[in-house]
Amino acid sequence: MATNGASNGTQGNSQDVDFRDPAVYSEYEKKWSSLPKDEAGWLRRAQEVADVLAADAGTRDKENKSPRAEVALLKHAGLLKVLGPKKYGGGEQPWSVGYKLIRKVAEADGSIGMLLGYHLLWSTTANVVGSPEQADRYQKLIIENNYFIGGAVNPRDSDLKITSEGDKIIFDGFKHFNTGGVISDLTVLEGVYDGTEDHIFAFAVTDQSGIQFGHDWKNIGLRLTESGSVKINKVAVPWTDALGWNPEQKKPDAEILKIPFASLLLPTIQLVFSNFYLGIALGAQDYASKYTVKNTRAWPYGGDNKEQATDEFYILSTYGNFHAHLRAAVALANQSGDQVNEIYAKYSGDLATRAKLTPRERGELAEWVASTKVVTTDTGLRVTAGVFEVTGAKATSQKVGLDRFWRDIRTHTLHDPVAYKNRELGRYQILDEVPEATWYT
Questions:
Q1: 359 half-sphere exposure, CB direction, 13 A CA radius
Q2: Which of 129, 178, 278, 373 is 20 to 30 A from 114 in CA distance terms?
Q3: Average pLDDT over residues 186-212
Q4: Has residue 439 got a pLDDT over 90?
Q5: CA Rg, the chain, in Å?
């Protein structure tokens, strides 16, 4: 693919958007001059990033500026490269480590944890729906250049069409939602090839006149994710970059796309969601705990009066319950991450190896992920709303900023109705049915 114009997240079509100067984090480029060597090192690096973000997360949420600086911080830390092959300068860690990094960053800032999660998914798109040659080519491009990847892949929008012009495909249309595109180097585009029901994924350089962002993300939460609309106007991509397609025949390559392996993007990203939900909830618990210790007052009219809030039975009981459920959610998320590792370790590689993944195995993985989605959604919403009961009326002040955790998790947990995950799990339990692969399973 042509890469002229990729501009390290400073797209010309967003030059008037308010953003913090990426130079505010320049000191970390030298501090983090090399990548961690193992899982423990990666987790320490993620904690260091989280510590930096936590210092002014509430302020940045209020300012609502485009997160170019925060993406630069992720680049300096090397977190964008955690899954990439070592031969191109990546960390070559399994997905389970990637999920833990997402969770840790989200503890401090849900928006930036979400951006990291989506990047890790989109940066590995070619590994799942592309040919082995495409997968290797894009890993080299993305990892060596430390690119941040956005995505205009909203399956509910069917108005992004693809036509063929010679040796190129032309994307034309609109998406109501994209993630991180405004501050990305490359954007994953997805649409339906004209006259068929076949979808095409392809990477495109973000900094071009044909990609115009609406800058209309005005939602209550995840305010720094640049998740608004985008207009795609005649964006050309070489047929050779259509992931998993035969460029000569202009048809999907059945060996690549008509097998369960090619549908692994869906459970993989659903577990991305669960991990930043979990990170946000853990962050809320920690933030509220510190507030309670420092600021919450005991209730003087209960008949069993205490001198300080940390002696109050109901406060201790509530925090203890949150702790137990979050600890269980972490264990489930880690187990699901291990299941993802197992599938990719066993079936990644040449097409013959990919083809061995069965629908049953793929479906059982999806049910691990669905279980995690249900638990992290339910627990996350309960914790981020419930912390106000143990912090007190003053904690509702905008100055405190405790509300951002609930706003963040409430915003994204509406991405797709969790009720359908419950139904899906019910059919698995009662009828031993695994779900068919869809855009959301």
A1: 8
A2: 129
A3: 95
A4: no
A5: 22
- Range(s) within the chain of domains with CATH label 1.10.540.10: 12-148
Q: What whole-number distance in Å separates Cα of residue 406 and Cα of residue 339?
A: 29
Residue 222 to residue 86: CA distance in whole angstroms: 32
Of 415, 376, 396, residue with least CA distance to 279? 376
The amino acid that residue 421 corresponds to is: K
> ∠427-432-438 over CA atoms, to 5°?
60
Q: How many CA atoms lie within 13 A of 290 on its CB side?
A: 7
Beta bridge partner(s), residue 246 = 251
Q: Are 351 and 132 in contact (CB under 8 A)?
A: yes
For 280-302, write each residue's pLDDT tens digit. Answer: 999 999 999 999 999 999 999 98
Nearest to residue 162, comparing CAs of 190, 141, 143? 190
CB atoms within 10 A of CB 402: 20
Confidence of residue 3 (pLDDT cuts 50, 70, 90): very low
